[in-house]
Design goal:
globular; mainly alpha; 18 helices; 0% strand; Growth Hormone, Chain: A
Length: 472
């Protein structure tokens, strides 16, 4: 082959890549818009770490007890838990996009209540409201993103929501390092407002439009998302979606459908994933990152360390669609176990040294937390939501997802509320070793129960659970 032929082929390949990228831009825009809610949720989750320290220093409400601080931190999870059945109902009746629109405005209100709070009670109400709205969004956005995405980019786009959660946490840590908790809260109020504006420029899920019999709307939505020039380009995909919806409508819409043979297994897998995701201890780390760093007396600025924890996701997220779901989940659990084991060793040595840091090891807890966040961000952070939205059948996606997310937030509350109690009972070393052990158990369970879904269509995944064919 001549040099001219090689150069011509290379140019053609590059042009094909450019066309492929252009045709995906609207999917990326729509997924990015829906993922802004993840930024707001991350801000809610990370808020208490810098805010509680700011409140202690400013004494805006006098001396707030440690028990009340745990309630301020954890009440977000209660609101999110109660949001799960509400989100399931709204998604099925109003639509995916409409549910996001409906809860964006009260999200802003929740942040404003916190900003202008003159009592702990107002802060608690504001935190509950942001948790409720964040809970609806965290359940709705991943499903919306899955339903608008083509198979080739579904994993990448599905991970965007969790990545935005981490970035929301980073931003909150960074802002909290330079301003008071009030200004930080006002800053966070802008993002659900931005979400509301962005939602005006994206379409409703084509799957939901088909479910409601609006076939022409679904066709136009797909043409817009795929940047197709004619109906013929998207007809095969539209036909597959219609067949998928038609098959789902043969089922009744009862809660007992969750116990059908093709439903209980993916639902159980989803619940196990969110269980191990929360029992990784991530909520405690996000809520109390600065306190953990301060407790090491390492000399590292806790604000800087907290931002570094969040920035670790940039490296980890690069792996998201480069490897299989299952290998990332298992590797994530093992990485978190190693990180927590190392941190536990540091605190054990300090306990044996009468509270003095072991020589030359003050860096170990911060390094361990960064490895933990990287491991979490590469697998157990985003992928449980991605896998959940991929494996739960369409006809029970609302109620099944509601059950799984309620389970998720119940454990998020439990982990956050018992943070101080566990440390008192187990000491710092035992606390981290406890979560390291759970992560190892999670790696084993995931390896033997979670099928590989990377690169598989929704139809192939459902066929696996219906006919038990092997896609692993």
């Amino acid at each position: 082959m001549s040099n001219e032929d090689i150069e011509g082929k290379s140019a053609a390949t590059n042009e094909d890549k450019k066309v492929f990228t252009r045709k995906k831009l609207r999917q990326f825009f729509s997924a990015g818009a829906a993922s802004i809610g993840g930024f707001s949720l991350g801000a809610s989750l990370g808020w208490s770490s810098p805010a509680l320290i700011s409140m202690r220093e400013r004494k805006d409400f006098g001396d707030v007890s440690a028990n009340m601080e745990t309630w301020i931190a954890s009440i977000v999870a209660i609101g999110a838990c109660l949001a799960s059945p509400l989100a399931g109902f709204c998604m099925q009746r109003l639509g995916r996009k409409s549910s996001l629109v409906l809860f964006s405005a009260p999200y802003v209100l929740g942040w404003l209540l916190i900003t202008f709070a003159n009592s702990i009670a107002m802060i608690m109400v504001g935190r509950f409201v942001t948790g409720l709205c964040g809970g609806v969004i965290t359940m709705t956005s991943p499903i919306y993103i899955t339903e608008i995405s083509s198979d080739a980019v579904r994993g990448t786009l599905g991970s965007a929501f969790m990545i935005m959660i981490i970035f929301g946490t980073i931003c909150t840590y960074g802002v909290g390092a330079i301003v008071s908790w009030k200004w930080m809260s006002l800053f966070n109020a802008f993002f659900p407002a931005i979400l509301l504006v962005c939602l005006l420029f994206i379409p409703e899920s084509p799957i939901f439009a088909i479910m409601k019999g609006r076939i022409d709307e679904a066709r136009e939505t797909l043409k817009w998302l795929r940047k197709a020039e004619s109906d013929e380009e998207i007809e095969p995909e539209l036909t597959k979606m219609m067949l998928q919806v038609e098959a789902s409508q043969k089922y009744s819409k009862k809660l007992r459908d969750l116990f059908g043979p093709d439903v209980w297994k993916p639902t159980a897998i989803s619940m196990s994933l969110v269980f191990f995701s929360q029992l990784s201890g991530v909520q405690a780390v996000l809520f109390y990152a600065k306190d953990i760093v301060e407790s090491t007396n390492s000399g590292v600025n806790p604000d800087v360390a907290a931002v570094l924890l969040g920035c670790a996701v940039i490296v980890a997220s690069a792996l998201m669609d480069k490897a299989g779901r299952r290998i990332l989940l298992v590797g994530s659990e093992i990485g978190m176990a190693v990180a927590f084991t190392a941190i536990g060793v540091f605190f054990y040595l300090r306990e044996q040294n009468d509270g003095e840091n072991p020589a030359n090891l003050s860096w170990l807890p911060v390094a361990g937390l960064i490895v933990f966040i990287m491991s979490f961000a590469a697998g157990m952070g985003p992928l449980p939501r991605v896998v959940l939205s991929e494996i739960i059948p369409l006809h029970v996606k609302g109620p099944a997802a509601a059950v799984a997310f309620m389970f998720n937030w119940i454990w998020a509350f439990a982990v956050t509320k018992t943070f101080n109690d566990l440390i008192d009972a187990l000491n710092e070393s035992g606390f981290f070793w406890f979560y390291a052990a759970i992560s190892l158990v999670g790696a084993v369970v995931i390896y033997f129960t979670v099928p590989e879904t990377r690169g598989k269509s929704v139809e192939e995944i459902q066929l696996y659970f219906n006919k038990k064919s092997n896609i692993a």
